[in-house]
Amino acid sequence: MSADDRDLYFHDDFFYAERDLSLLSGEMPSGAAIGTLQPLSPIMSFDDYLKLDAFDPGELASPELVADGAVNSTNNLTPSTGCGGGTSPASPRSSVPSSSTEAAGEEDTSRRKKDHLKQEKEEIEKDQKLQSKADNDKSKTLSKPKKRGEKRRREPRFAFMTKSEVDHLEDGYRWRKYGQKAVKNSPFPRSYYRCTSQTCLVKKTVERSSQDPAIVVTTYEGKHTHHSPAPARGSTQSLASPPTASTSFCHHHHLMHQPNLQCFLQSPLQGFQFSGCDLLQDILPSFTQKTQP
DNA sequence: CGGCTTTGACCTGCGC
DNA sequence: GCGCAGGTCAAAGCCG
After folding, report:
1. Which UniProt keywords apply (predicted)?
2. Chain C bases under 7 Å from protein CB?
3. How far is the CA of A140 from the C1' of C9 (A)?
4. pLDDT for the residue A153
5. Closest nucleotide to the alpha carbon of A154, via C1'
6. Cross-strand partners of A145
């Protein structure tokens, strides 16, 4: 795997999905990064993984990934990381101080709270000023819900690659396409999807690998706040069964029965490979295994 | 008619 | 500050 390849998928709080295409031929990567990963909890489903509060990269990712800094930044995310907000408790890593720093932490807590309140108050006042100014300028620019000066926070993301002829893989949830953009250095566009559930802010992007057009790279951002996929209009299919990982991938599973359609799904954590989706349902639990301490 | 896709325009972040 | 690329919006049109 080249450094360039890595950069393509290595963003700030983004889970890097090992994408050495040699995996397609069944070779396991020889690099230590994957070899050092610990198995995840077999109880978790892929769906759980999507909903996982933290995808706590510090726990899930390899040391190499953590060291890169791409992972640590995730700890700066608010506890409401994920869609719907507020359903996600703060990750242990970010909320529980280590024993060595606990005393000092308590000592500072009240002071920090005051500072925080003060800062919030100031920000609110600032926003109000900006808002009134923005109201005056409304005729000039398109209205934008996002506050000025507010940095866009990125949800933890992870990607996996699937060798498939179809771009948009059925994963049990319903998605609405809201954009498509040409990607630099790639002949294939990137499609942007949002979960159709009103309270769910999960997004995903789908693009084909420029190196291997047969490979679809799907990137999820956020986590679902709902257990059931949004009901399909005029269809009972998605309501017929609960949206477990197995059922979610059943649709995909069916696709994989097409001739010459090979599937490989790589965990960003372990680099698993699926060759032929008859294995999918059996392997999925492993795919989402959680790191053991 | 409601939901979805398409697509051009606009916004934002980042590197130079 | 400027330009580029990624990301998002929203109007128009399509479809079941």
Report:
1. DNA-binding, Nucleus, Transcription, Transcription regulation
2. 4-10, 16
3. 16
4. 59
5. C7
6. none
A138 beta carbon < 7 A from strand B?
no
CB atoms within 10 A of CB A216: 22
CA nearest to A259, candidates A161, A170, A160, A165 = A165
Mean pLDDT over the full length of chain A? 49
Measured from Cα to the C1' atom, the residue closest to C5 is A184
C-alpha A293/C-alpha A290 separation (Å) is: 9
Residue A197 vs residues A61, A137, A226, A243: alpha-carbon distances, Å: 29, 33, 8, 14
For A158-210, the three-class secondary structure string (H helix, E strand, C coil) is: EEEEEECCCCCCCCCCCEEEEEEEECCCCCCEEEEEEECCCCCCCEEEEEECC
Which positions on strand B lie below 7 Å from a protein C-beta? 2-14
**Distance, CA of A234 to C1' of B2, in Å:** 11
What would the mean pLDDT of A65-82 be, rounded to a whole number?
A: 35
Query: Is residue A155's pLDDT more than 50?
Result: yes
Checking if the pLDDT of A104 tops 50, the result is: no
A281 CA – B15 C1', rounded, Å: 44
pLDDT of residue A196: 83
